[in-house]
Design goal:
Elements: H1 3-19, H2 25-32, H3 37-50, E1 53-54, E2 64-65
Antiparallel strand pairs: 1-2
Helix pairs in contact: 1-3
Amino acid sequence: MTEHQMNVYIAIDEFWKKYGFGPTVENIQYMTGDNSRSNIHRIMKRLCDLGVCKRTPRRARSIRPAYLKLYKVDRE
């Protein structure tokens, strides 16, 4: 894992610990000081490919560290 990937992972982890849900790309961009949304998105995808993070397809703010276990709760 590169230094920049580690910074993005730490930003995701800290956001989950503080708020209890996943960050947006803009949140991660602000926390890491990066200027490119596409770069953050590419790194998030790479972290999921490495198995460090998990993501639910077609769901916003679904990225989370792999150690978190989430259960589906149906709301009506």
